[in-house]
From TrEMBL:
<dbReference type="GO" id="GO:0005737">
    <property type="term" value="C:cytoplasm"/>
</dbReference>
<protein>
    <submittedName>
        <fullName>PKP2 protein</fullName>
    </submittedName>
</protein>
<dbReference type="GO" id="GO:0005886">
    <property type="term" value="C:plasma membrane"/>
</dbReference>
<dbReference type="GO" id="GO:0072659">
    <property type="term" value="P:protein localization to plasma membrane"/>
</dbReference>
<dbReference type="InterPro" id="IPR016024">
    <property type="entry name" value="ARM-type_fold"/>
</dbReference>
<dbReference type="InterPro" id="IPR000225">
    <property type="entry name" value="Armadillo"/>
</dbReference>
<dbReference type="GO" id="GO:0005912">
    <property type="term" value="C:adherens junction"/>
</dbReference>
<feature type="compositionally biased region" description="Basic and acidic residues">
    <location>
        <begin position="94"/>
        <end position="107"/>
    </location>
</feature>
<dbReference type="GO" id="GO:0014704">
    <property type="term" value="C:intercalated disc"/>
</dbReference>
<dbReference type="GO" id="GO:0045110">
    <property type="term" value="P:intermediate filament bundle assembly"/>
</dbReference>
<dbReference type="GO" id="GO:0002934">
    <property type="term" value="P:desmosome organization"/>
</dbReference>
<dbReference type="InterPro" id="IPR028435">
    <property type="entry name" value="Plakophilin/d_Catenin"/>
</dbReference>
<comment type="similarity">
    <text>Belongs to the beta-catenin family.</text>
</comment>
<dbReference type="GO" id="GO:0005634">
    <property type="term" value="C:nucleus"/>
</dbReference>
<dbReference type="InterPro" id="IPR011989">
    <property type="entry name" value="ARM-like"/>
</dbReference>
<dbReference type="GO" id="GO:0098609">
    <property type="term" value="P:cell-cell adhesion"/>
</dbReference>
<keyword id="KW-0130">Cell adhesion</keyword>
Amino acid sequence: RNMSSAGPEGRKKMRECNGLIDSLVYYIQGTIADHEPNDKATENCVCILHNLSYQLEIELPESYAQSIYMQRRNISSNDKTPGCFGTRSRKVKEKQQDTPLPEEKSNPRGVESLWHSTLIRIYLSLIAKSTRNYTQEASLGALQNLTAGTGPMPFAVARTVVQKANGLPNIRTMLHVSHPTVKKTAVSLLRNLSRNTSLQSDIAREVLPDLVSILPESLPASDIVCETTASICYTLFNLTQSSSHNARLLLSADGLPKIITISMNDCNMFSKASRAASVLLYSLWSHTDLHSAYKK
């Protein structure tokens, strides 16, 4: 577990270690089957897999990368802007989200297991069944890692989480736990999922009212709450930016007063949350059909 957080070279060596990932997955499957999700060794295994999934898409061996990106050959190399603030056109993004992964292997081995639907379902099962905060956080964090980025793998994993494995109810439960880092990681995962336009209606229907309900009534009281609040606002931004229906859903959940309160704070400590709330308000105002409702 300690070695798995030693940086890119350490992760590479561990991913390449014959049988290691398979053994970790096998052990977790056994404890879930034996109804022992709170086992300490299970926590360690999940934390290792969480670390090994970090920056996975970037650090994949070239042979896997070629297989995954083979179907994107027709996308111009000029459109491969990295990072969150790329200049990709909407058409390219839509094409990217519609690009499936190569067909899953029925018996994945080694690094292939890290993004396989079997392990995704294991994470969701642990989120639902374990009461250990580190296990919950690591499971959510692994899914967060796998859904980060803009390639076909993150979007394929996001579709598995939301549509194939019905994972939103389990994630939604984590929004209401008292442990702040578990809640923060759950929100960060939802923020990643909400970037996929084909999943936004499902996500809004399932968790938008919950996201509004956990927004603070007043200014966030700590750094971690501030970061969580900013993440919630950006998730709501993704869900409402091009959907008047979802914006109305936010309105009916009494989200507007909270967002206004957060946006009006200019204290440096909470500027991240304040800025995110302001960006969300600006986006909400673009739905001209809701102006009269906003004014009321």
